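In response to reviewer comment 3 from the previous cycle, which asked for concrete evidence that the modeling workflow produces usable outputs, we include below a single protein chain processed end to end. The sequence was submitted unchanged, and the resulting structure tokens are shown without manual editing.
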Amino acid sequence: MHNVIIIDDEAAICQSLTFALEDQYHVYAFTDPREALPLFERIEVAIVLLDLKIGEYDGIEILEEIKRVSPATIVILMTAFGSIPSSVEAMRKGAFSYATKPLHLDELEVLMAKAEEFYNLQSKVEFLSSELDKMGEAHGLIGESYAIREILSLIKKVRDIDSTILITGESGTGKEVVARTIHYQSKRRNKKFQVINCAAIPGHLLESELFGYEKGAFTGAVQKKQGLFVLAEGGTIFLDEIGEMDLGLQSKLLRALQERKVMPVGGTQEINFDVRIISATNRDLVKEVKENRFREDLYYRLNVIPVKLPPLRERRDDISLLVEFFINQIGDKIGKPIDGISREALQILEQYSFPGNIRELQNIMERAIALTSSSIIEKVDLPAEIQQENRVFSDNTLIPVYVGELLDEIEKRVIFHNLTAFNGNRRKTAQAIGMGERTLREKLKKYREEE
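The workflow returned the following structure tokens.
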């Protein structure tokens, strides 16, 4: 139900309109417009019925104030017959339409229905525009590496299957981008894609956001609110950082997924839902389960189709494509076209370990584009710490490679030389040679056993 505000200096009109509309809308009535205006900052108001003359106040001035604080709100003016020219002037300033007094409820219902339809259409256009902008930023899936080709192949297989998906990977690897790609390539693409970060909202509020709440359910619940499971009906919910959800809410989420029903906070009747669930985490949920921080049954319910995203250091071949994308995207965004990047600067980026992954690369490119005085990105435009890390690779002792030498022997020598250079630190060694830590661990075990 949408929120509707009535502003009229006659209390009787406020009461009669409230009675007529309260079955279809959440209605708030005010005889003083200055008491009504603060409400726009607390709730989303769909429609306002505004008297053109409210005692000492000019309705057109109130209209302008409403459109300033809430441009999307639809305003219908209520006016005496003789004030129609003023109403037409108000429509030029943003009013949707006008109704003449005395009001006829049948005519008002038709006008309200048209206003609601326009408001819904306007909201949908705004939502789709926002989603298209986000889809234009789908840089996480740019690449030609084997890892990205595998992920794109998996997306193609699962996009129209309603099974739950769990996306894992380090921060900044593009987990939300993958979730959006799945949604917008699926049969649910014309419905909403709702995102919630489970780490950003306190547990007691997260339940309300997911399941909704009834009016009076807790202090401050002045109206009923629908949760994301209802708002996303027919679409997709993306539960980001699911590993941060507290155990109490995990059990409620599990029940919702099993029953395909949610119970609003303070409610007495469950609501059926039809949504696809995609979740993501940078935590090791198997470890979290073993340490009793994550429910095992919920883990298996979420992890029907696992998708693991590699860190950027394990897909270095994609760095040049990502750099090209960011140069074009960011250059257009800030109005500073850049022709490209020098070979030296690109080599530095290709050798960098990127602990912040794609998000870090994006920030580096934005900084470089903003600060460069050249038409291309040069080495000097990159952060000093990245250039410093690059020296570790360029200034280190050379590793000899001989004609006819077996690849296993070369690989073994490269691994142990780098391990020594990084004082036995496996993570830094793996980053330096572009190898996963697990793969490095297995290689070290193999080579040491051979010795």
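The mean pLDDT is 87. We consider this sufficient to address the reviewer's concern, and the full set will be provided in the supplementary archive.
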